[in-house]
Amino acid sequence: MTFPWLSVVGMGEDGLDGLSPASRTLVESAELLAGSERLLALVPAGPGERLAWPSPFDALAARLEAWRGRRVVVLATGDPLNYGIGAKLLQHFAIDDIRFLPHVSAFSLAAARLGWSLPDTETVSLHGRGATLIETAMAPNARILALTAGEETIREVARRLVARGYGASVLTVLEHMGGPAERRISFVAQSLTEGPLADLATLAVECRPEPGAALLTRTPGLPDDAFRHDGQITKREVRAITLAALAPFPNALLWDVGAGSGSVAIEWMRAARGARAVAFERHAGRLALIAENAIDLGAPSLEIVPGDFLEDAGGRPPPDAVFLGGGVSDTRLFEAAWAPLKAGGRFVANAVTLDGEAQLAALNATQGGELVRIEVAYAEPVGQHMAMRPRLGVTQWRAIKA
Question: Which end of the chain offers a freer environment for a tag, N or C, measured as fewer CB atoms within 10 Å?
Fold first, then answer.
């Protein structure tokens, strides 16, 4: 049996005093002790060498690899596998090489301070990811715990809450939890607190909507006016049906070919934790709209690819699902999107023209799947009365690649 040579020890603001005897022994006997300057400062000098985080992170992995087989300890904040360094280390080292000794996470500490039940609380990291991710967690009466990247992140969260009609929400900043400098500050989103806030802080949000606040849930089918668009957008009801057919799941990758406003790709990412998407769009004027929508609606990692899909699709990781929202009459688009789709992956294409419908019917005959006609009508005034006025019908082809 091979024993781990690399130990990842979680540590709190109380330093060595908060560690278990086993963790403390590992830290004090390490031949190489690596960590942030803040954590290293909490450990008195010992016989081993010290390594502060280098940049980029790959440089750290190479430095640690050079010590393989010796007693190496990496210090992490709290729980290293809870939005910590643990996941990054596992990209470079096998689990058999690593021993994880977690400390209490910032989420657990914050929940204990506030008396919140963690399973009933939304948790998110905004550290290095952008405050826009708070958008997907906003909901009436929701409780959110967020790791932050400092004062500007907290203030941006407050601004976003106000913009969405949640200005009455209560924000609590919990700084340096577990240490001598621990502090708690609470304020209402629409009344930003004055004075500096600590870089090391966890933000708690109690969402309190005002009358008329936008309700933008993760359930697909956001209102069309939630997106910036020039008319090229998969309409709300059709979009909801399309997302249901695509079936988002955690960490899955979608190709949105002819993304328009990016609405399908963005809702795919909102619908499942870690879901990823690539938006292909050749219309230059729509690229900025897609980017703005992604930032506004909590999908900042959406990859936007300008230009011709036929030229840009090659060499990319294979998708778990593909949505073809336009140009379905061009068989080359289908072939370029179908070929890299993973086995078991879902392909959904929508058409509104007769040419497009004919192509979808041909695909259904050769590839299998199912054809669905989507008809939507809205009530509108007709003289002194109301009548249902139908929208342009959409034919949808759905298939699962064998």
Answer: N
